[in-house]
């Protein structure tokens, strides 16, 4: 069946904003500028502050939901289902998972390439599938188990490509790249818990997806913003990539932004793109199918890889083609139509 213009628009919006989201986060990591108190020029390494901006983008989905709801009420026949009332604190556990997983991934993105980062995120398929069996009582069909095995193969190939190449194009040591890859895998375990919790709550309470994303964004934004205060004083040793070597130095980040305002553009790109990406992803699932959403997510990996090569952020590695191919095929298997 041919797609409508609106469906094509949604697919293009999801692919574009999803790619911008990862690329803008990586672009922010590549800036360097002086810090506070005449601190020498250093890299913009502020993963927790970047996560705060990302949650601000998710929080905007809540505002969009209420705007759509108010606009819809003026129509003779409303089309937006507000969903039943629920306790917002139900979404606190998935919000905490989102906060932890996102923060870890932003730390990892500082250590590895944007393309490897995006490919390794495919590990969420493995852990989500296993947790769905354990806690949601699902039964995975043979094609879905094949998809999980292909995913594992793809992760091994991507990790091997990073190990063989050293992935030092961005000035990263091999030890940093390996640590970053492992952190991404660890984050996917947390994200898979988040996805299982979200699915359980959304279906049980008939929550509108935009409202769910926005509620999580609210909790994540408030909690992580408050946590920036103790992080300012917690020593992190070599893990702290700021002059004071603390867990997060938000003041240093704003001083760097003052010296190099272009950083704001990268942060805004991350904030705005995550809001549109969530909207487009939910709409693609509703208007087309979840399978199409997963395929578009696979294409996003290709776009990020090609753009990174074009910008000179990384060099060509043949093994990454095999890794990308496996990431694409595993989604083709794991998004089987029998999946509820």
UniProtKB/TrEMBL annotation:
UniProt key word rRNA-binding: no
Name of the featured protein: Solute carrier family 35 member F6
Species per Swiss-Prot/TrEMBL record: Silurus meridionalis (Southern catfish)
Keyword tags: Membrane, Mitochondrion, Transmembrane, Transmembrane helix, Transport
GO biological-process terms attached to the record: negative regulation of mitochondrial outer membrane permeabilization involved in apoptotic signaling pathway; positive regulation of cell population proliferation
Stored InterPro entries: EmrE-like (IPR037185), SLC35_F1/F2/F6 (IPR009262), UCP036436 (IPR012404)
Transmembrane segments: 48-69, 89-108, 120-138, 145-165, 177-197, 218-236, 262-282
One Pfam family hit: SLC35F
Subcellular location: Membrane; Mitochondrion
Topological relation to the membrane, as annotated: Multi-pass membrane protein
Origin: domain of life: Eukaryota
Purpose: May play a role as a nucleotide-sugar transporter.
Predominant location: membrane
An example molecular function term from Gene Ontology annotations: transmembrane transporter activity
GO cellular component annotations of the record: membrane; mitochondrion
Subunit-structure text: Interacts with SLC25A5.
Family note: Belongs to the SLC35F solute transporter family.
């Amino acid at each position: 069946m041919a797609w409508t213009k609106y469906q094509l628009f949604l697919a293009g919006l999801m692919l574009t904003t999803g790619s911008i989201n990862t690329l803008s986060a990586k672009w922010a990591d590549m800036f360097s500028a002086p810090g506070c108190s005449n601190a020498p020029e250093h890299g913009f390494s502020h993963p927790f502050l970047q996560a705060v901006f990302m949650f601000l983008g998710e929080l905007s989905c809540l505002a969009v939901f209420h705007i759509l709801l108010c606009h819809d009420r003026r129509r003779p026949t409303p089309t937006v289902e507000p969903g039943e009332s629920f306790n917002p604190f139900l979404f606190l556990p998935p919000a905490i998972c989102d906060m932890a997983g996102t923060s870890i991934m932003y730390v990892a993105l500082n250590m590895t390439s944007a393309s490897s980062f995006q490919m390794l995120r495919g590990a969420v398929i493995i852990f989500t599938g296993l947790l769905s069996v354990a806690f949601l009582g699902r039964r995975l069909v043979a094609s879905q188990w094949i998809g999980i095995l292909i995913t594992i193969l793809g992760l091994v190939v991507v990790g091997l490509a990073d190990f063989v190449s050293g992935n030092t194009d961005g000035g990263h040591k091999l030890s940093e790249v390996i640590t970053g890859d492992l952190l991404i895998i660890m984050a996917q375990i947390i994200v898979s818990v988040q996805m299982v919790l979200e699915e359980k709550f959304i279906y049980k309470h008939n929550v509108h997806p935009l409202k769910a994303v926005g509620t999580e964004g609210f909790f994540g934004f408030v909690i992580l913003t408050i946590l920036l205060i103790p992080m300012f004083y917690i020593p992190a040793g070599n893990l702290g990539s700021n002059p004071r070597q603390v867990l997060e130095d938000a003041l240093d980040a704003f001083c760097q932004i003052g010296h190099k305002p272009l950083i704001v553009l990268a942060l805004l790109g991350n904030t705005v793109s995550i809001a549109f990406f969530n909207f487009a992803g939910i709409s693609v699932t509703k208007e087309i199918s979840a399978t199409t959403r997963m395929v578009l997510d696979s294409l996003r990996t290709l776009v990020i890889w090609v753009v990174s090569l074009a910008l000179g952020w990384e060099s060509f590695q043949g093994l990454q083609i095999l890794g990308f191919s496996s990431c694409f095929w595993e989604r083709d298997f794991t998004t089987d139509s029998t999946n509820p």
